[in-house]
Amino acid sequence: MIFTSRFAPSPTGHIHLGNARTALFAFWAARQSGGRFIVRMEDTDQARSPAELARVLLEDLRWLGLGWDEGPDCGGPHGPYAQMERLPVYDDLLQRLVDTGHAYPCFCTADELSAERDAQRAAGKAPRYSGRCRALSAAEVARRLEGGEEATLRFAVPCSGTLSVDDLVWGERSYDLADLGDFVLRRSDGSPSFFFANAVDDALMGVNLVLRGEDHLSNTPRQILILQALGLPVPQYGHLPLLQGSDGQPLSKRNGAASLRELRSAGYLPAALRNYLGQLGHHYPATHWRSDAELIAEFSLARIGRAPAHFDREQLQYWQEQALQHLGLDELVAWLRPHLTLVPDAQISGFVAAIRGNMLLPADAVAWAEACFHPLGRSEKVRAELAENGAEFWQQAQTCYKEQPDDFRAWTRQLAQQSGRKGRALFHPLRLALTGREQGPELAQLLSFIPPEEVLRRLAPIFS
Ligand SMILES: Nc1ncnc2c1ncn2[C@@H]1O[C@H](COP(=O)(O)OP(=O)(O)OP(=O)(O)O)[C@@H](O)[C@H]1O
């Protein structure tokens, strides 16, 4: 089947990994089937949707590697692609629902509705709208509307029967229509509800695959009722288990989940995120690094799991490491160059080649650059440890280095002979003295970036 799928975020905050995974899966499903992918802004919550956020959201999606055939920035045959620009479309369809008896104005106030819900809860019932205004006569509705009374528009849900939904992830689910309650299609301020605008936009834009978070699972029967009442096509739905944070709560724009923006500025690579997200709640046949073509070709709706997935930074770091290994040296240099201002241009390729196995993020590369190109500061603990090696060892280290400064093997071999040390006893204090760290890139390689006078200074840790 050729899928037209979409990602329809509310531009109310920076996109997080949960949103990003939902977007990626929808994008991959469309691309794999040779279909189309649409981005639509659900910006009807105007107070929380400044235009700037929508722009940033699109930028983040592009950075992640998504491309869309239709969207707010590139247009397309089913536009506009921001809901606030589609209000006339909704008005026409809402009128059609009123005319066909599928919708009615509701004058109940927020206080009345809340009292009704409290009473239902007190009686041990699930709260839902009683349908009080459905019984109003046409004359009364006209009188109250003419009198300027505020009204929402509600969908008249059939009083009995069931609705079955075959969800791509959850399988078949049956809903008792009597449990749904008449829901709001248009708020009293005239704006369309999520249920309504989201469902009709999908149908009008030719979307036949809706992949979205599990938070929308219970909206599905309502949306199908709307589409059926309007004679519009019903897409296939698949609800992805929500991605949770370490606190076990679903990631949300509202609870400050790690945003794509933050991960990007920390230096995570989009290809690392794609590989990481592709294996979160979706099982590829084997766990290994995949190119984009492989991620798409091997993606399968049938391999989406039902268990909630958890964001795990260590796993993300694993995929970042993989991403670095799969970058060519030139690409790595181009990526790191803006950060490595300390490294002279002529040395940058060699430097990056030396440290690439010992870094995950640009900040690590900067730290290695500082370790080589800046005078080294040392903690008390490191000083004490270096001092334990005794003045004679450091004297010998300096002398041997002065004799063969350009040949690491030769001077350490000579130092081994003079000091009687070998292996860790020899190299550990040297590494600590020269880099200030216990571990890191090949010392021989790093050393070529440290000016000789600085090497000598570092080899005199208990004299300086
Ligand atoms: N934690 C999550 N895991 C997976 N998908 C999610 C998660 N949170 C939201 N989504 C999905 O991302 C898509 C865009 O949703 P939306 O823009 O409303 O994000 P949101 O994080 O729920 O925002 P808000 O916090 O403002 O409600 C929807 O399909 C939604 O179901």
TrEMBL record:
<comment type="subunit">
    <text>Monomer.</text>
</comment>
<dbReference type="InterPro" id="IPR033910">
    <property type="entry name" value="GluRS_core"/>
</dbReference>
<keyword id="KW-0067">ATP-binding</keyword>
<feature type="domain" description="Aminoacyl-tRNA synthetase class I anticodon-binding">
    <location>
        <begin position="345"/>
        <end position="460"/>
    </location>
</feature>
<dbReference type="InterPro" id="IPR014729">
    <property type="entry name" value="Rossmann-like_a/b/a_fold"/>
</dbReference>
<dbReference type="InterPro" id="IPR000924">
    <property type="entry name" value="Glu/Gln-tRNA-synth"/>
</dbReference>
<keyword id="KW-0436">Ligase</keyword>
<feature type="binding site">
    <location>
        <position position="253"/>
    </location>
    <ligand>
        <name>ATP</name>
    </ligand>
</feature>
<keyword id="KW-0963">Cytoplasm</keyword>
<keyword id="KW-0547">Nucleotide-binding</keyword>
<dbReference type="InterPro" id="IPR001412">
    <property type="entry name" value="aa-tRNA-synth_I_CS"/>
</dbReference>
<dbReference type="GO" id="GO:0006424">
    <property type="term" value="P:glutamyl-tRNA aminoacylation"/>
</dbReference>
<keyword id="KW-0030">Aminoacyl-tRNA synthetase</keyword>
<comment type="function">
    <text>Catalyzes the attachment of glutamate to tRNA(Glu) in a two-step reaction: glutamate is first activated by ATP to form Glu-AMP and then transferred to the acceptor end of tRNA(Glu).</text>
</comment>
<dbReference type="GO" id="GO:0004818">
    <property type="term" value="F:glutamate-tRNA ligase activity"/>
</dbReference>
<feature type="short sequence motif" description="'HIGH' region">
    <location>
        <begin position="9"/>
        <end position="19"/>
    </location>
</feature>
<dbReference type="InterPro" id="IPR045462">
    <property type="entry name" value="aa-tRNA-synth_I_cd-bd"/>
</dbReference>
<dbReference type="GO" id="GO:0008270">
    <property type="term" value="F:zinc ion binding"/>
</dbReference>
<dbReference type="GO" id="GO:0005524">
    <property type="term" value="F:ATP binding"/>
</dbReference>
<dbReference type="GO" id="GO:0000049">
    <property type="term" value="F:tRNA binding"/>
</dbReference>
<dbReference type="InterPro" id="IPR008925">
    <property type="entry name" value="aa_tRNA-synth_I_cd-bd_sf"/>
</dbReference>
<dbReference type="InterPro" id="IPR020751">
    <property type="entry name" value="aa-tRNA-synth_I_codon-bd_sub2"/>
</dbReference>
<keyword id="KW-0648">Protein biosynthesis</keyword>
<feature type="domain" description="Glutamyl/glutaminyl-tRNA synthetase class Ib catalytic">
    <location>
        <begin position="5"/>
        <end position="317"/>
    </location>
</feature>
<comment type="similarity">
    <text>Belongs to the class-I aminoacyl-tRNA synthetase family. Glutamate--tRNA ligase type 1 subfamily.</text>
</comment>
<feature type="short sequence motif" description="'KMSKS' region">
    <location>
        <begin position="250"/>
        <end position="254"/>
    </location>
</feature>
<dbReference type="InterPro" id="IPR020058">
    <property type="entry name" value="Glu/Gln-tRNA-synth_Ib_cat-dom"/>
</dbReference>
<dbReference type="InterPro" id="IPR004527">
    <property type="entry name" value="Glu-tRNA-ligase_bac/mito"/>
</dbReference>
<dbReference type="Pfam" id="PF19269">
    <property type="entry name" value="Anticodon_2"/>
</dbReference>
<protein>
    <recommendedName>
        <fullName>Glutamate--tRNA ligase</fullName>
        <ecNumber>6.1.1.17</ecNumber>
    </recommendedName>
</protein>
<dbReference type="InterPro" id="IPR049940">
    <property type="entry name" value="GluQ/Sye"/>
</dbReference>
<dbReference type="Pfam" id="PF00749">
    <property type="entry name" value="tRNA-synt_1c"/>
</dbReference>
<dbReference type="GO" id="GO:0005829">
    <property type="term" value="C:cytosol"/>
</dbReference>
